[in-house]
């Protein structure tokens, strides 16, 4: 039987530090926390590992920049026990596709009550239900029943999600029947004023078959035209593969040898080349073709 013991702490006076949005170096807008709080209670679970998190939507298109967790060293000290020293955190979309993941450590930079670790920029769009969750080992404390929880201005909290599991798996529902509204994982986000390069998903292909890359989902908040710069940054040592139309949204190349080919995309404002995205890469893994194996 899963047991949760809830202890109510004193209100906001326990937490004196202000919430300061972390800054992302190459982004002109500061990153905002998805959630913060001024008062909380604490639960400690016994005997099992739990996946604990919440479902949310966004009001406007934003970019997730880091994943976070409330860990040891936070000013949110539990009544008994201890907060985790680290927490694996994952973000999924409504189709259970994994969008971002990281293990957040208590040595990672802290803002407010959270430690944050940067991850690859991830586009979040209105109309999609996202689920964020972290894995909490048995015997450690987690945040719960947060009356002072404040979601970020672009974030709409939907409800808790939970699962009894030894691994961090997608919590499709609130399987444990939690009474509370928040359990320690978080993220930061920013608007997309700097262009964002989205080079498509990694793929497996056959050698000798033409590969067409697709960066057409790249965008900027201004919705203005973009310039494209693709580079084949890694390929098998003896490969002679080259990108064609590397200044277009969808260049192509033909992998001539078995191995991994990595293409990097940078997009920039067509009217100001100094306003550019951070590089983003896609990996194409080439295997022997069926015809080659039959000979």
Shape verdict: elongated
- Class inferred from helices and paired strands: mainly beta
Do you know the CATH topology of the largest domain?
Jelly Rolls
Assigned CATH architecture of the largest domain: Sandwich
Distance between the termini: 60 Å
Strand content: 35-45%
Total helix count? 1
Q: Average pLDDT, to the nearest integer?
A: 79
Largest sheet: 5 strands, antiparallel
The helix content is under 10%
Output the strand order for the largest sheet.
2-15-6-10-9
Our Rg estimate from Cα atoms comes to 22 Å
Number of domains: 2
Which stretches are low in confidence, meaning pLDDT under 50 for 5 or more residues running?
Answer: 1-29
CATH class category name of the largest domain? Mainly Beta
Helix/strand order? EEEEEEEEEEEEEEEEEEEEEEH
Q: Please count the beta strands (DSSP E, at least 2 residues each).
A: 22
In short:
This protein has one helix at residues 290-294; strands spanning 3-8, 32-33, 35-36, 41-46, 50-58, 62-69, 86-92, 98-105, 110-111, 114-124, 130-136, 141-144, 150-151, 155-164, 185-190, 203-206, 211-212, 226-234, 252-253, 259-269, 272-276, 280-287. It has 295 residues and is mostly beta strands.
Give short descriptive properties of this protein.
Jelly Rolls; 2 domains; five-stranded antiparallel beta sheet; 1 helix; Immunoglobulin-like; 295 residues
Give your account of this protein's structure.
The protein is an all-beta fold and 295 residues long. It folds into 2 domains: 3-190, Jelly Rolls (Sandwich), CATH 2.60.120; 203-294, Immunoglobulin-like, CATH 2.60.40.10. Helix content is 2%, strand content 44%. The protein has one helix at residues 290-294, and strands at 3-8, 32-33, 35-36, 41-46, 50-58, 62-69, 86-92, 98-105, 110-111, 114-124, 130-136, 141-144, 150-151, 155-164, 185-190, 203-206, 211-212, 226-234, 252-253, 259-269, 272-276, 280-287. The strands form 6 sheets. It has a 5-stranded antiparallel beta sheet with strand order 2-15-6-10-9, with no helix packed on it. A 5-stranded antiparallel beta sheet has the order 8-7-11-5-14, with no helix packed on it. Strands 16, 18, 20, 21 and 22 form a 5-stranded mixed beta sheet that branches. The radius of gyration is 22 Å and the shape is elongated.
């Amino acid at each position: 039987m899963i047991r949760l013991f809830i202890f109510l702490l004193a209100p906001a006076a326990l937490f004196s530090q202000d919430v300061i949005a972390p800054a992302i170096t190459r982004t002109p807008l500061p990153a905002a926390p998805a959630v913060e709080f001024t008062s909380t209670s604490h639960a400690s679970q016994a005997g099992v590992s739990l996946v604990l998190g919440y479902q949310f939507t966004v009001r406007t298109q934003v970019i997730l920049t880091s994943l976070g967790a409330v860990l040891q060293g936070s000013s949110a000290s539990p009544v008994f026990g201890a907060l985790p020293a680290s927490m694996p955190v994952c973000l999924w979309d409504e189709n259970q596709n994994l969008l971002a993941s990281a293990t957040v450590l208590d040595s990672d930079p802290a803002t407010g009550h959270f430690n944050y670790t940067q991850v690859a920029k991830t586009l979040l769009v209105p109309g999609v239900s996202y689920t964020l969750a972290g894995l909490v080992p048995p015997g450690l404390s987690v945040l719960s029943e947060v009356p002072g929880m404040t979601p970020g201005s672009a974030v709409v909290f939907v409800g808790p999600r939970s699962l009894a599991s030894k691994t961090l798996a997608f919590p499709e529902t609130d399987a444990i029947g939690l009474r509370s509204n928040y359990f320690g994982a978080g993220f930061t986000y920013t608007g997309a004023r700097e262009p964002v390069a989205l080079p498509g998903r990694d793929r497996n292909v056959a050698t000798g078959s033409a590969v067409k890359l697709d960066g057409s989902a790249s965008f900027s908040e201004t919705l203005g035209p973009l310039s494209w710069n693709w580079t084949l940054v890694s390929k098998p040592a003896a490969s002679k593969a080259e990108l064609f139309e590397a200044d277009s949204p969808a260049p192509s190349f033909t992998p001539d040898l078995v191995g991994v080919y990595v293409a990097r995309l940078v997009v920039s404002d067509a009217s100001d080349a100094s306003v550019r995205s951070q590089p983003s890469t896609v990996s194409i893994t080439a295997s022997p073709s069926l015809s080659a194996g039959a000979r």
